Amino acid sequence: MRLLTIIIILLLLQSAEPRKGGRNKAAQRGTKGRVRGRGRASLMKRQTQECKEYTEKREKFLDCQDRQLTFVNQDWPKDIQHLLLAKNKIQVLRNNMFEQFTKLKSLDLQQNAISVIEDNAFSGLDQLTTLLLQHNRIRTASEEFLLPLRSLSYLRIFDNPWSCRCPLETLVRTLQVPSNRNLGNYAKCAEPRSMKGKKLKELEAELLCAKDNRSEVLEGPEPGPVIEKSDAVSICNLKYPGPLLNCRHKGLNRMPPEMPLDLVGIDMSNNIIKHLRPKQFLLSKELKLLNLSSNKLEKIDTAAFAGLLHLRHLDLSNNSLRYFPYGVLEDLYFLRKLNLDNNPWMCDYYIHYLVYWLKHHPAVSFTGLICSEPEEFRGWRVEDYVKTYNGECPIDKQIEDNDNGQGAHGGSENEAQQVMGEMAEGQLDLLPQPIRKKEPNEIDIIRLS
Ligand SMILES: *[C@@H]1O[C@H](CO)[C@@H](O)[C@H](O)[C@H]1NC(C)=O
Ligand SMILES: *[C@@H]1O[C@H](CO)[C@@H](O)[C@H](O)[C@H]1NC(C)=O
Ligand SMILES: *[C@@H]1O[C@H](CO)[C@@H](O)[C@H](O)[C@H]1NC(C)=O
């Protein structure tokens, strides 16, 4: 949702900017597209350098957008209220750089190459209400640069590679003052890794300068110790090295919110989670071990493990799983161990996906896939159950023969899918007894193609 908002804002800002074209045309479009430009466009008074000056609703604008500028020219008129400097090549905002423009109300510096803001860059601008600094290269800044801006009510700083470390603390605190609700929205940390993607508005500021040498494990050689702290971390226990999130025995009925992004292991064992919802691990790209043992798991949504490209060990033992929905394992390319023990596996049509997947991923060692229902198969290995089933099924047999030594991922799932599709269409007669007896609504919908 927020991402969408940002995209819309970006599109609006972009469309508000004049395109290149003939001089007069550009001027007209420029004024028409102005943010405040609801009224009639106005006159071009004089050419200033290569910039255009014009008046709109009695306010003076100087349009210097997209002109390869690297500095502010001392010859520019001093009485302007709006200075448009977007899409130039400014790299450093020097002390007192805008001092002469004492009437300035808005300053647009977006899409430059600004990486440094000196503390007094905006001195003298005590009437400035709007400052646009998005799409630059600013990594850090202290609150000092905001101090001269006593009227500032709107500040854009998103899409800058913010380094969320100690030097940023004062700025973060300022942005978080409740009355500053339009300052710095959407800005996010680009580093350190543990903070990446977090909003400056929502950081726990005191952690930016927290001293803790555990973070060296987290950050490697990078300086500036930072500990990841989020809800998940306060509910559970973060252990190093790793980091590993230990949430054992916490009485949780769902995954804790805001897990640190760089977790290598999550131990959720001995909780009361019943239902694993989609995409909860999407950001946990480093995760190698996920322990969901001893929960109350009955249902795993198809996209529950989406994004876990590096997961090696998944422990689902001691739950209440009867089947796996189709497709649930598709993202787990590097899975090596799967604990399935002590679940009431139901040996019917719906278990086939799991068996096919395992068959086509021979590198995965698994334990505990034993039928618990129906009674006639209780205690059977699920693979044996599927084999007896396949014995009666020529199509399955054929496919089995054709794809020995299947190493790559990709084709195999399609085949499993195909097989299941064919079974569904043509071979209901061959299904074992229990499935014909089953009530239609007993098990959730299964995706076949
Ligand atoms: C860092 O870790 C070492 C050894 O683990 C410990 O002796 C030291 O007190 C720690 N320093 C800080 C600042 O926590
Ligand atoms: C998962 O947690 C259970 C209970 O805490 C433990 O016995 C088991 O060894 C863990 N599994 C893995 C793979 O670490
Ligand atoms: C299985 O989970 C239940 C709680 O769901 C727990 O009481 C029991 O000790 C667990 N058994 C094993 C073998 O871990």
UniProtKB/TrEMBL annotation:
| InterPro entries hit by this protein | Cys-rich_flank_reg_C, Leu-rich_rpt, Leu-rich_rpt_typical-subtyp, LRR_dom_sf, LRR_TM_domain-containing
Q: Where is this region: Disordered?
A: 398-431
Q: Which terms are listed as keywords in the entry?
A: Leucine-rich repeat, Repeat, Signal
Task: Kindly indicate where the leader peptide sits in this chain.
Answer: 1-18
GO CC terms in record: plasma membrane
- Start and end of every LRRCT domain? 160-210, 343-394
Q: What name appears for this protein in its UniProt entry?
A: Leucine rich repeat containing 17
Q: Which organism is it from?
A: Cyprinodon variegatus (Sheepshead minnow)
